[in-house]
Amino acid sequence: MKYRVLKAVSIVMILTAMAGFLFTPSNSRAQSSRMERQHHQSDMWNPNWMQRDMWRRGQMGSGMQQRMARHWTFMHEGIPAAYQGARNPFASDTKIINEGRTLYQQNCASCHGTTGLGDGELANSLNPSPALLAYMIQMPMSVDPYMLWSISEGGEAFGTAMPAFKDALTRDEIWKIITFMRSGFPVEQQK
Fold first, then answer.
1. Where are the beta strands (DSSP E) in 60-175?
2. Of all helices (H) and strands (E), which one includes residue 25?
3. For residue 128, is the peptide bond before it cis, meaning its omega torsion is within 30 degrees of 0?
4. Chain centroid to CA 144: how far?
5. Which 3 state secondary structure label does DSSP give 47?
6. Could you list the pLDDT tens digit for every one of the 191 residues in the chain?
7. Cα(191)–Cα(189) distance, rounded to whole angstroms?
8. What is the pLDDT, as a whole number, of residue 156?
9. Does the reported pTM lie above 0.90?
10. Cβ atoms of 168 and 107 closer than 8 Å
11. SS3 of residue 46 by DSSP
12. Contact (CB, 8 A) for 174 and 150
């Protein structure tokens, strides 16, 4: 008997709490949401463009839909078969990182910047601006197949100026660039 009463009381408490949330005036929830957004506006680890409410249709600023299109495709449709299961064959050693740096500087730095912060000499002329590779490479979605696909196919399919490198670079060269990025865009290392 005690168990049934406790169970009934627990259910009533849960339903009451849910009802309180669901029937709270919407302006109160909106005010709470505004306060949360204000808190995050100055947070460098949670910048405005990362806020989920900005990802809805009509809420994204200029270039954001193109920027998110590849991520959306990856999450909902996967990647082309040619890149599925791809794995970087290179270890993160000094020789490979130096080769990757050279390739990155020759092919990527003019847009993405020497340290992957999207501040290359051509960056301001692009819309959307180049990806912030130094941050993106650390994201969970930046698995090997995703990175190989992104660099190989470029951004034409997603409305960005990112060129496709599959005909300009070998797969090994692309892997070396990825190895360099994963190592944190280090300055020249001695052999």
1. none
2. none
3. yes
4. 14
5. coil
6. 555 555 555 555 555 555 554 444 544 445 555 545 544 455 555 555 555 554 455 555 656 777 788 888 888 999 999 999 999 999 999 999 999 999 999 999 999 999 999 999 999 999 888 999 999 999 988 999 999 999 999 999 999 999 999 999 999 999 999 999 999 999 875 55
7. 6
8. 94
9. no
10. yes
11. coil
12. no
CA dist., res. 71 & res. 165, Å (int): 19
Place of tokens 């947070």: 43
Tokens 């998110």 found at: 68
* Residue (of 160, 129, 150, 149) closest to 66 by Cα position: 160
Sign of the CA dihedral running 57, 58, 60, 65: positive
Exposed e or buried b per residue across 99-127, where buried means at least 16 C-beta atoms within 10 angstroms of its C-beta: bbbebbeebbbebbbeebebbbeeeeebe
Maximum pairwise Cα distance, the chain: 77
